[in-house]
Amino acid sequence: MLQNVPEKQMRRVRSLLAIAWLLLIASLIYDPISPLLTHPDTHWSLLRLDPRVFDPQRCHEVVTVQGQCFIERPYAIATRLFWGVIIGAVICIVFLFGHESWRRICPLSFFSQLPRLSGIQRQKQITNPRTGKIRLEGVKIDSNSWLGRHHILFQFGFLFVGLCLRMLFLDSHRLLLAAFLSATILASIIVGYLFAGKTWCQYICPMGPIEVFYTGPRALWGSPAHEKTTSKITQSMCRTMDETGKEKSACVACKSACFDIDAERSYWDSLQKSERKFFHYGYVGLVIAFYLYYILYAGDLDYFYSGAWTHDTEQVQRLFTPGFHLFNIPIPIPRLIAVPLTFAAFTFGSYGSLCRLEKAYKAYCLHHDREFSAAKVRHHVFSLSTFVTFNFLFSVGTHSTLELFPEWLEWSLQALVPLLSAAWLYRTWNRSLSLYHKESVASSLRRQLSKLEFDFTEFLEGRSLEDLKAEEVYVLAKVLPGFSQESKVRVYEGILREMLEKKMTGSQESLELLTQVRVSLGIEEEVHFRLLSELGETYLELLYGDRPLMPMSSLSTSSDSAFLASRT
């Protein structure tokens, strides 16, 4: 949604939100004003406390914790604002407008980029093996390193520990929360100094995989990067401004299949990875456990629904008190142990249950679905679990905030949740890797056709090339009168180059689709290999990547011809 907003304006927005973030931290440390909003005598305030909480004889009518009255006092609202509004708003933005909107305004992303913008980011010397010239570039995470291979599990572990800390210390302890948020900002700056690109967002921040979870292949109102034809800067891709103020890419290739460049491609690229599966299925249980634990601990819904957990002044003192209260019986497991135990049990329980669901659904599709594929099965289970989690989160998790509003507004907002999530599920359900590739190649074909000196208007009945669907673009390229063989070869060469540049030649779907395009355009196989040879002379790295380079004259050997064929 925000991908087309100029970077100059977005920097101002990020700066303002970063300042607001710092003010929030400051209010956690010192805030003499907002407690007035929660005082029972402030009748116009939505946050004012019920007078019964001050009466020991009647406080049980409002909130109880493990059968005992919970005595409340006027409190500063920063913790309730952060946990009850800001966190929910971030997830809602990601689900509705895509990661691209949040990533362009995220305060932590802003802080992580400060070393680069200040010109103090750590760099290393790189020597060009051909020319011997030395250049400086930022340090990147090695994709083969432990963090490069297991960053999803690392981020999930970060999230797990963070939620445990929140439940035990940070829900209501303002100074500890201020320290935690400050430490997070400092960590993002340090990572931004040590490593180039969006290393913090891609490899460290626990919000990274959460954004993938709620976005899916695309958000409800997200933009499709693979169909963009007017600019190479897509979605939340790293960008900067040159001396003239014009935007240009600042990508340093810190991660392959970057989520910021093309969210859907990143989604399909990681779909079958075991760590991604563990995060997606485990996160469902983690969310359920987080909100359910308030009930398991307090014994009823009052404690959670009232929002009293955001200003419980005795939260830290209760670390060694009974962590469960079931059927009016306290369970003598210290809260310090009960919290991570509950989270772990639900995480692994959810993972196991959804794995069994995926297996059962796979068996069903194997016998009833002619277009069966393992990727399709997992995509459907992923989408369904996101749908259920989003509904649970915003129908149960936001209750303590929504109940502050008039009843008609609360019910209206609650009614929007299933409607919006159903619209997202409808938009997501039939997406597939083959459809993504088909649209990508059609977009590339559209770009190549637009470069030809040919008047298409008389054949399109007033429409432009951008208005055509993928199938229509293929038909147009195949049957267009006056479309010479030279033009077809030029178009095919452009498509081939783009697919190699995007590293989209590694899947069976893309290879079959490229073959279909070649046949539709009437390009012979000999011409295909000639184009590959010419591309190899100019773009050696496209064909070989990290493979040792060799003279293009040696491509006549069968092994190298097979290698080139495997690349396309």
TrEMBL record:
Pfam families in UniProt = Fer4_5 (PF12801)
State the species of origin: Roseofilum halophilum BLCC-M91
In Swiss-Prot or TrEMBL terms, this protein is called 4Fe-4S binding protein
Chain ranges passing through the membrane: 12-30, 81-98, 152-169, 175-196, 278-296, 336-357, 377-396
Entry keyword set: Membrane, Transmembrane, Transmembrane helix
| Domain of life of the organism encoding this protein | Bacteria
Q: In this protein, which residues make up the domain named 4Fe-4S ferredoxin-type?
A: 180-215
